[in-house]
Amino acid sequence: MNGPFRINRPAPRAASAAAGGPPAGASGDEWLARLVKLVPSEVVAVYLAGAELAKAWLGTWAFICLLLVIVARAAGTRADGKPIQWMAVLVSSVSFVIWTYASGGHMLGMTLDPNTGIPSIAVLLWTFLVPYFYKGD
After folding, report:
1. Residue 25 above 50 pLDDT?
2. What is the distance between the alpha carbons of residues 23 and 82, in angstroms, rounded to a whole number?
3. Of residues 105 and 65, which shows the higher confidence score?
4. Distance between CA atoms of residues 101 and 112, nearest Å
5. What pTM was estimated for this model as a whole?
6. CA torsion 49→65→42→137, rounded to 10°?
7. Which residue pairs from 114-123 have beta carbons closer than 8 angstroms and sit at least 24 positions apart in sequence?
8. Which of 9, 32, 61, 92 is deepest in the core (most CB within 10 A)?
9. Which is higher by pLDDT, 35 or 137?
C-alpha cells in the first residue's frame, strides 16, 4: 500500500507511450499533487491550534510540531517494499520551519522578524519551486 504522502515520479514520456500506458504525466504526481504532499498542512493546523495556548513556550511548541512533521511524513511516505522518502520528509520539515517564521512564530528562541518580508518571500519561492525540483522516486 502506498503512503498518503508518498511522491511518485512521473514515468518518462517514451516509456509511458511504448508501454501503451497513459499519456505522459498521467502517472506519478503532478506539480500540484507534489505541492500538497510537501506542505505539512496537518501539522500546521496543530501548530496553529496550540499556538495561543503555548504563547509562553511558543518556540518549544514549534519544535514539538517539527518533530510531528518528521513522524507524520516518515510514516506517510512509507510503502510496501519501499523505504521512507527521507528527502520528502526533509522538504516538508523545511516547509514547516519557513511557514512558522512567516507566521510570526519562532523556533527554540531563534527569531526572524516577519516585517522584513524575508519569511513571506521564502514561503512563496519555496512552495512554488520545490515541486519542480523534487519529484519523488
Report:
1. no
2. 25
3. 65
4. 6
5. 0.82
6. 170
7. 122/98, 123/98, 123/99
8. 92
9. 35
The CB density around residue 111, as the number of other CB atoms within 10 Å, is: 12
The rounded distance, in Å, linking the Cα atoms of 116 and 82 is 42
Nearest to 3 by CA among 112, 98, 84, 95: 84
Cell numbers that stand for 90 in this block: 526533509
Distance CA 70, CA 93 (A): 7
Query: Nearest 5°: phi and psi at 108?
Result: 50, 45
Provide φ and ψ at 115, rounded to 5°. -70, -15
- Please give the single-letter amino acid code of residue 128: F
How far apart are alpha carbons 120 and 54 in whole angstroms? 23
Is a pLDDT exceeding 90 seen at residue 53? Answer: yes
Side-chain-facing half-sphere of 50: CA atoms under 13 Å = 16
Cell 510540531: give the residue.
Answer: 65
Distance CA 119, CA 98 (A): 6
18-27, 83-92, 105-114: which range is least confident on average? 18-27
Closest CA to 38 of 81, 72, 79: 72
For the record, the C-alpha cell of 21 comes out as 500506458
